[in-house]
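Progress against Task 2.4 (sequence-to-structure conversion) is shown through the following example record, which the project officer requested during the mid-term review.
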Amino acid sequence: MDTLIEFLTGPYRTAGIGQIVIESIAFICGILSVWYAKKAHVLVYPTGLVGTALTVYLLYQAQYFGDMMMNVYYSLMSLYGWYQWTRYNDDTPKYPMSQTNLKERWVGFAFFLLTVGVTFGVYQAFDYSMQWYSYVDMVTSGIFFTAMWYMAHKKIEHWILWIIADVITVPLYAYRGLGMLSLQYLIFTLLAIQGLQAWRKTLKSYSSL
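Structure tokens generated for the chain above:
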């Protein structure tokens, strides 16, 4: 237990109070965002936007540029998703909860490749020394961005992508000594599994009508 506490709190002993406050707010907003996503509530986006904007700043300070770009994407996609979730045709949401079709899966794959390429370009632009985990960043960035696009259109597959990328990110942040972020993504994983189950239940109820 002492080792776990040291892992989670050790990196923050030399951190300024401002950084700790910012990271705490980002942590809380991130958890709230996934919770609201599970409920298919539009508040997923404003809470997520606050969390990702603060995380962009924190990751820039830490010089994790791949992760930083991932959160820039999150911020932009939060604005896009917020707009899409509030669009209605009469009293019917323009994008009801649904599954992806073949075309949307190909679009998602294209977003994945594009994000991987952009993330690599960011590393090169900042003259960043590529490590093995840099390539993992590129892959998870692509998965996360595709998940955000699917979520903006209320596609249930976004939960599967979240789970895959979260599972990869938990040990990655732990390896870097970012205990609080590692814990956050572990919580994200558990909430994403619950979210997938909840959305499947909702879709099943639609099909039985």
